Structures are given as structure tokens and as C-alpha cells.
Amino acid sequence: MGAYLTSLGMEFRHWIAVEISACLPIPGRLHPSHYSLLYYTKGKAKTFRRIRTPIQTCRHCGGEVKDYGGHRDAMNPKGVNLKDVWSDIPPVRHWKFKSRDRRANALSTKILDRVVEMSTCPGELVLDPFGGSGTTYAVCEQKSRRWLGMEIDFAAEIVERLEGGGILNHKNDDYVEG
Ligand SMILES: C[S@@+](CC[C@H](N)C(=O)[O-])C[C@H]1O[C@@H](n2cnc3c(N)ncnc32)[C@H](O)[C@@H]1O
């Protein structure tokens, strides 16, 4: 895959690990706990916006959970620079997004929200050639991005989602600069 993308003139920029909590163990292997987003660009990225994620707090007491090696006071109050390990994304297959009638599980909108904000400005065009449940398109609609999509299998769920039946938002508190 990497060699193929390179042959198309794409440049590798980032390997992003998205942590997942619910994954079945595989005998004789390490327990899988992430999946990967491979970030390629054709030449220099046209748009790459700095994202800051909120200072992490305890969901029970509200207190901050890290002291950042004693450098907390020197940190930007808008948040921490986005890292290449994302552990703040809701589970992909949370029961709330499963339904006997649905053939595709809805991805967390937070992933696409972050990807779209990082790599495009309002008005720019996003192509997702693997429509699935249409998460990318739903996020683009909400964030004023133009989009192009295709799906080889079923489109009814995408239409339903875009018509307002199933856009489930996961709150995203990222701070976007620029
Ligand atoms: C994991 S889903 C993608 C999730 C999606 N990007 C979203 O925002 O929800 C992958 C989808 O790609 C579709 N697919 C696979 N091969 C395809 C092809 N050659 N052309 C169009 N769609 C394809 C599959 O049917 C499947 O629904």
C-alpha cells in the first residue's frame, strides 16, 4: 500500500494510532488496541492547521490528571499540541451505534471532525471514495466543506444520515488555530 501510494507521488507524513478499547484478543499475538490512520499528501500539504486538544481532566472530580513533568504553568491555555496517538475517541462499535437494521456502524464523528479541521478550511473539497455510513459527508456538511463520495454497496444509510435521521455527534473540544 505504502509503495503504491509513493508510486503515485504521495508523500508519507504521519502514522496516527487511534486507541480502541473493545477488541477481541488474538491467541499468540499482542492484544490489538489501536487502528491506524495513514496520512499522505501530494507534495506539501495545501492546508495543515495546528490543533490543540484540551488539558485532560478527570471525568469524576474534574481535576487535571497530568502535571506535564512539572511544566504545567508554561503550557498554552488553549491546550496541548495534537499528537499522533489519539486516545480520546469514542469506540467505533459502541452499542449505541449498532442496530439490526443498519449494515454499517457509524464511525465517531470526532475522528472525521479532527481530520477535516486539520487538513481543510471551510469551502475546500473533501473526497472520501469509501462512503460507508457517510460519517465523512455528514461532518463535511456540518463544517461547510464541499465533498465528493462514492460507495460500492449501499447508499440508503448515507442518504438517511444526511437527511437528518442519524447524525450522531461526538463532542469535539479541539481548538483549531488559524
Ligand atoms: C470502513 S467503510 C468507510 C467509512 C466511511 N469513510 C465513513 O465516513 O463512515 C468502507 C466502505 O468502503 C466501501 N467500498 C469498498 N470498496 C469500494 C470501492 N471500490 N468503491 C466504493 N466503495 C467501496 C465498502 O462498501 C464500505 O462501506
Question: How would you describe what is shown here?
Answer:
By secondary structure, this protein is α/β, with parallel strands linked by helices. It has one domain (2-176): Rossmann fold. The chain contains 4 helices and 8 strands. The protein has helices at 2-7, 109-119, 135-142, 156-162; strands spanning 10-19, 34-42, 51-53, 80-81, 85-86, 125-128, 146-149, 175-176. The strands form 3 sheets. A 3-stranded mixed sheet has the order 2-1-5. The two termini are 33 Å apart. The mean pLDDT is 88. The protein binds S-adenosylmethionine.
CATH hierarchy class name: Alpha Beta
Biggest sheet features: 3 strands, mixed
Mean pLDDT: 88
Strand arrangement, largest sheet? Answer: 2-1-5
Q: Which of globular, elongated, flat, extended, rod-shaped describes the shape?
A: globular
* First and last CA, distance: 33 Å
> Could you estimate the helical fraction of the residues in percent?
10-25%
The DSSP helix count reads 4
Number of DSSP E strands: 8
Under CATH, the topology can be stated as: Rossmann fold
Give the DSSP E fraction (strand runs of 2 or more residues): 15-25%
Low-confidence stretches: none
C-alpha-based Rg, rounded: 18 Å
The SS-based structural class is alpha/beta
The ordered H/E elements are HEEEEEHEHEHE
